Amino acid sequence: MGSEADYKFFTARRPNRRLARWVNGYLAQDCYSVRPILRRVAAVNYPVIVIDLDPAVRRRVPGSVVPAAVSPVSGLIDRPQAHAAIGRERCVIVELTPLGARALFGRPLDVLANTSVGLADLLGRRADLLAEQLWEARSWPERFRVLDFWLSRWMPAGPPLPPEVQAAWQLMTQAAGRVKIGDLADQVGWTRQHLNFRFRREIGLSPKTVGRIIRLHRAIDLVSGPEPARWCEVAAACGYADQPHLNRDFRALLGCNPTELLRFDDAEREIYVGFDAPFLA
Questions:
Q1: Residues 38 and 106 grouped into a single domain
Q2: Terminal CA-CA length for the chain
Q3: What is the distance between the alpha carbons of residues 38 and 149, in angstroms, rounded to a whole number?
Q4: Could you identify which of 58, 94, 162, 271 might form a hypothetical disulfide with 67, taking C-beta atoms 3.0 to 4.6 angstroms apart as the criterion?
Q5: What pairs with residue 269 in β-bridges?
Q6: Is-contact 98 48, C-beta < 8 A?
Q7: How far is CA 39 from the centre of its chain?
Q8: pTM for this one?
Q9: Are 126 and 205 in a shared domain?
Q10: Same domain, 74 and 137
Q11: Residues of the chain by 3-state class (helix, strand, coil), percent to 5
């Protein structure tokens, strides 16, 4: 908490278990700052929807994607992004799985990779309906129930991922990114070239890049818990040849080195690293 004029409120919840295949989690955010807050977003393997409940001011940071003006949606991203937020931000963040994004938006995810699109551009009238009911809800638990209600109706009726792509995704996540692309192709019955082409089209990034991002987030998990591992142990556990390789991926995918991540306690800076550890600030 900064000055009396500043405040931050976050609360997270898992979706209804019926939505587990499609949605990772919900995060409610209500923040106000009289000074700009630099908000970094790590490279992530999951599409993210930000549903604004009030108009928000998000300013582009050089080198990053321009956020959509209202309720931005981003696909998978393979590089750190950033924007400056000022004033009040009251929104609900929905972290989807690729299967969920394919079902909800009805299109391959390559069109969303490394970009930001307004939710209304993807869902049309459904986006207005959702935002209106979330705004009218009286509490955050009620807003989470609104999301459960509509997403459980829309997603099961949407198109699935190709089964080979879905299988490859599951194998990669189960192996924490430590799987060779050739072995992955053999297991789903495709050539390596065909797997790369179809995976990139349907998911938005190549299997190799997705594996790097999975390993990065595994490393973040290992050092952000109550008993953090040593960096040399983290590098070995996540499949890095040595700590310098780990450092390079941190800089490329997170925008800072491992030591800086743990010192990231400036009140005017935050890093979003995903639902399980949403903001490091």
A1: yes
A2: 11
A3: 34
A4: 58
A5: 38
A6: no
A7: 14
A8: 0.89
A9: no
A10: yes
A11: 45, 25, 35
